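INTERNAL AUDIT FORM
Audit reference: QA-55
Scope: verify that the stored structure record matches its stored sequence.
Auditor: D.O.
Record contents follow.
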Amino acid sequence: MKKKNTECIFCLKDDFSLNKVKQDQILLRDDEFSVFFDINPASEYHLLVIPNVHM
């Protein structure tokens, strides 16, 4: 597993965690990626697709 990046908002446990995302907002989660609705959407279907490990 790769080291977490301290400048990446998706790697910082205090600022972001998929565990904090409401389960009904997560559309897909597999071993590599997670897809969920943005908490501050710019459009009706504004989705975030992020890797589960920092790249």
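Auditor finding: record pair retrieved intact. The chain has a mean pLDDT of 77.
Action required: none
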